[in-house]
Amino acid sequence: MSETNPAAAGASVDTAPHRYTAAVAAEIEARWQDFWDAEGTYAAPNPKGDLAGDPELAARPKKFIMDMFPYPSGAGLHVGHPLGYIATDVFARYQRMTGHNVLHTLGFDAFGLPAEQHAVATGEHPRVTTEAAISNMKSQLRRLGLGHDKRRSFATIDPDYYKWTQWIFLQIFNSWYDDEARKARPIAELVAQFESGERAVPGGRSWNALSAVERADVLGEYRLAYASDAPVNWCPGLGTVLANEEVTADGRSERGNFPVFKAKLRQWNMRITAYADRLLEDLEELDWPEAIKLQQRNWIGRSEGARVDFPIDGEHITVFTTRPDTLFGASYMVLAPEHPLVDKFTPAAWPEGTHDVWTGGHATPAEAISAYRAQAASKSDVERQAEAKDKTGVFTGSYATNPVNGEKIPVFIADYVLMGYGTGAIMAVPAHDVRDFAFARAFELPIICVVEPTDDRGTDTSAWDDAFVSYDATIVNSTGEGVSLDGLGVVEAKARVTEWLERSGIGEGTVNFRLRDWLFSRQRYWGEPFPIVYDEDGVAHSLPESMLPLELPEVEDYSPRTFDPDDADTQPETPLSRNEEWVDVTLDLGDGPKKYRRETNTMPNWAGSCWYELRYLDPHNDRQMVDPEIERYWMGPGEDRPHGGVDLYVGGAEHAVLHLLYARFWSKVLYDLGYVSSAEPFHKLFNQGMIQAFVYRDSRGFAVPAAEVEERDGAFYYEGEQVSRLLGKMGKSLKNAVTPESICGEYGADTLRLYEMAMGPLDVSRPWDTRAVVGQFRLLQRLWRNIVDEATGEVTVVDAEPGEDTLRALHKAIDGVRQDLEGLRFNTAIAKVTELNNHLTKAGGPVSRSVAEALVLLVAPLAPHIAEELWRKLGHGDTVVHQDFPVADQAYVVDEAVTCVVQIKGKVKARLEVPPAISEEELEKVALADEKVVAALAGAPIRKVIVRAPKLVNIVV
What we know:
There is one protein chain. By secondary structure, the chain is α+β, with helices and mostly antiparallel strands. The protein is built from 29 helices and 31 strands. Helix 3 links the parallel strand 1 and strand 2 (101-104). It is 32% helix and 17% strand. Among the domains are: 1-39 and 746-755 and 771-894, Isoleucyl-tRNA Synthetase, Domain 1 (Orthogonal Bundle), CATH 1.10.730.10; 167-296 and 518-598, no CATH class; 302-513, Valyl/Leucyl/Isoleucyl-tRNA synthetase, editing domain (Isoleucyl-tRNA Synthetase, domain 2); 896-956, Ubiquitin-like (UB roll) (Roll), CATH 3.10.20.
């Protein structure tokens, strides 16, 4: 290590043997971490048992502080990862010192694809590599001095944990959503309604007349967890179904770059759409960043409009439209290629007069549709929804009837319509929709203007370059036999045509959502097994709680079976399906031993993170997911938290939608069923920024080791070759990662903590600069030097009272740091601590004990190891963790006097020292009586005096 490194050397060993160095920091930090573990310093007492025997502790307010679940990567942490963990630790420590009972812990989201990919490549069980990664991450986090209650930590791969993940799945499976009550209810109550006749059985038959299979089918239409033939992203080259996030924009797998096809497979789904309105409504009561709320609103995508039936061959196609006012402009229809009615309305031959451009060059509609479906299946949803001008599609060979004017309009299939949104069918109004306009131009379809343009293009669409879209214009060309919309505005026209549709029995006003049900199946090994078995008729049965957890069996091969990458017609083969002894079982589910077949899909990695906040509360309960009294204490609703939830949840904005939406859904189901008192999982959400780093690339575009790059005359060189520099992410693959161990080894964990918190506001991204770390190390050295003699190691504080200047500096620091820590403004809190510490350094002489102790307490949440050591050196036998945080004396916070500027004709004529609380009337009198002001006025008449107490008086003459 360099001799010039102040952490390593600095002053001579002879003259400063007790100086705060990296070696001293390492010894102190390791010793106090051992102490905290041995003493259980961060153990948060629960209301049952612990608090019951300690009235004083029970009277404390509680604080539940959480980080987003980390995934234990085999690569370990770089310095960007702990940013949020350090921030929550600082906040948790501050809350403890302000009298709160604080729950702060950390578990591991450990199921997932990376470990399985490693298992496929090496044959090593994913549990082995995952547990090794968890062990390494625990070691790294411990070195940072994080104050976690380690008794409460767990990993989602622990059978004792995923037993309850499986149990929750079964509660959702055995529930349905009652639209009238607006809540989930047990499925047994729905069965009772069918049996009694209170609720009519779909199809009109009696419940008792239905077979077991028919009953299961009926209930499947209501269950909140249900299996259905769902369109999925099927990748034959990988042998698995992929989540949307694992498919690139050009419709290929992110891993391996294989083609991905849309295929229908039997999959488990969660009926999250039933909760769409409540998910929207309850957002308003959450203390979340507005940007995150907006993303959730957009994802849920609530839109009001109408459902309209278009007659076709004695039946009808139903569409949802947000613009029923444009019905007269509908000149064709489009169905999603996967729409179930496509085959039904496909004739054997093309109708007479079919345009050549509509057929795609195929001899029959069936051939055209088959070929187009294969083409559409090779595209991702993102690709299909792209705003490309070139639209593709094919005519089905059938015509529907526009219900408002009786016009026959052709029905197409096209990939820009998805089954997952609305009804999977649209009425196309090309004059007023950009995508429809492009399609109509490509297929030579009529374009009818029904919303009068507000520009100069006119209503003749033949010369238009694009659609005219407006929600504030006049309706034209919209009169039929039953209804006329001409001359109305959009809002009035929508109301009138919707009322006519309902009166005519061909439509109704309705609400639609962009949100789709959650696809909950994965064709992989490393995930929670479903607690579901199937009987010989294919009816799904839930396992009783006594059979949970259903653990993953051993398999010989973790690889999914792969196929010809271009063969979209293959079917996945899951790793679990190969263990026939596990799959085919004889069980007694209450009606005698029978043969069953287990579900061979596994749950997605989102499952474990949907409810982990609840298990932190009561992690060793083997009888309940969580004790209701314990849950109510930590997460129950309060005056400022109407839906309950975690007091502070910190994590990245990248989880704005999926994780947060899924967790909210699970919470609401559990709340409806009476298992929890909190309808929302996370009351306050804070998104930390990202620590960035410079990425250096050579002429080939390859990243080179950042630590080996040299800067010369403003340019950057690696092994003599000039390289480019760009600020970006930090990571192993970018060769710019800095490990926490390297910084801790050179400066200590307290310095790393201070530097990351001091870099800037917590919610913004900031660049890492290893050279700047030393600034925070020097702060700690000055703090140490103000209390400890570097030559003797003795404490130098004195019992004398501090001077007034020091008292003012101290109490201003206390007041400011309290406010900053409360508001998560850690960078400004550190600045105030630095200012106070510098004041003591400049003042010279020994520091008053009362000031030194207060300074140590101010530092304790930010740099806990050095604070513990100095607190002990100051003569205290108890830990600093549970000391009271200093409270400012407001008499010293408010300045005795402030400077007031007096201006005449905009020029400063006097400066007055006045009390901060002076009134405007008194300040005006003082200013006008000042001799400099009187002289400057020289008897001139005063027209107006503007007073801004206590800092400004402006005299207009």
